[in-house]
Predict the 3D structure of the following.
Amino acid sequence: MADQNDLLRYQAPRRLKLYFALAAAVFLFILIFGIASRVVAAHELATQATASAVPTVSIITPSTATAAPTLVLPGAVKAFYSAPIYAQVSGYLQNWTTDIGTPVKAGQLLATISTPNLDQQLLQAQASLVSSQASEQIAAVTAARWDKMRIGEAVSQQDADQKDADYQSAKATTAAARAVVAGLQAQEAFERIVAPFAGIVTARNTDVGALISTGSPTQTPLFVVDDESRLRIYVSVPEADAAQVKASSGAIFSVPEYPGRDFHATLAATADAIDPTSGTLLVQFQADNASHELQPGDYAQVKILLPAQDQDLSLPSSALMFRDNGMQVATIGPDNHVIIKPITIGRDLGNIVQIATGISKDDKIINNPPDALAQGDQVAVAKAQ
C-alpha cells in the first residue's frame, strides 16, 4: 500500500516541463530576433544617413566651339543718306510740290520761296553794275586820250598816269558790282528748294504762306529726304567683344514689323574707338533695301556672327559658381572629392559661356553645383542617362 505521504505530495505532469522549456526557448528567440532587427535597422539608418549626407551631382565636360557663335544686341536702323533741308534765303513759302512719302529724284523741286526783299536787292545791284560799267567805259576813253596827248607831250606823265589809275579803279568797281550781282543771283537760286539726291521725302514741316528764315541746325528743317535704297544699322558693342566683332563676317537682324523674318547685313565700318561713357564700340552694318520693305528709325535685334575660336572651351552658364572670390567652377578630383577652380570668362553668349582660363578639356565639371559645395567635399556622381 502506498505511503500516505507519497499520496499527499503533488507531482507535476511530465509534459508541463516540456511546455515551459519550449515557451522559454520561443521567448528567448523572440528576444534575440527583436534585438537583432533593431541593430540591423539602426545600421541601415546610419548607412542611409551617411549616404544622404554625400550629395549626388551630374558632371559635364567642356566643349570646343564647332560653329560660329552669335552676339545678340539692339541696333538702330538708319537711311544710307539722310538730309534735313533748311532754307538759305528768307521769305514766304510760295508753294510746295512734294509731301511725305513722295519718291523724288536728284534736283527735283520740293518747294518755292517768295523773296521780295532779295529781288529788290538784286535789282539795285544790277543798276549799280550798269553804273559801274558806264564809269569804266568813260575812264577807259579818258585814259586812252591822255596817253595819246602824253605822246605829243601835251600833258605831263603824272596826269596821264592818274587817268590810267582812274581807269583801273573803275574796272575794279565794276568787278565788285558784278560779284554782288552774281552773289544775289546765287541766293535767288535758293528760292527753289530741290532734293539733294534721289530718295523719299520723310518729313515736311512747312506750309504755304509760312514765314521762312535762314536755317540752322537748331531749327526744324523744312523737309527731310532719305535715301532708303540701302540702310545703315548701328550697334553699340561691349568692349569685351569689340575685337571679335571687328573680324565678324556680318550679321542677321530682325525688326518688329516682320516677326520671324531675318534680314542680312554686312560689316561696313567701326568707330575704332571705345566710347568712354558707355564703354562700347560703335559698329556700322549695311543692308540692301531695294524693295523698301525696311524703314529708317526701326528698332532692330542684331545677331552678330562672331568668328569661331577652337581654343576656347565652352560651358553652360548653369555650371558657374558666383562666389566672393570671383567666378569659379567645381570639378571632380580623385576619389570623387571636389576641387574648386577660379576661371576667367572670355565671352558670355547667354546660356553658353566661353572660358578663357582656369580649366582644361579633360576636367569633369559639376553641373548645377549645390550652394553649400566646398573644396574637398565628398560627392557621388550620378549615372549618365
Remarks:
- The chain has a mean pLDDT of 82.
- Residues 85-194 form a domain with the Helix Hairpins fold (CATH 1.10.287.470).
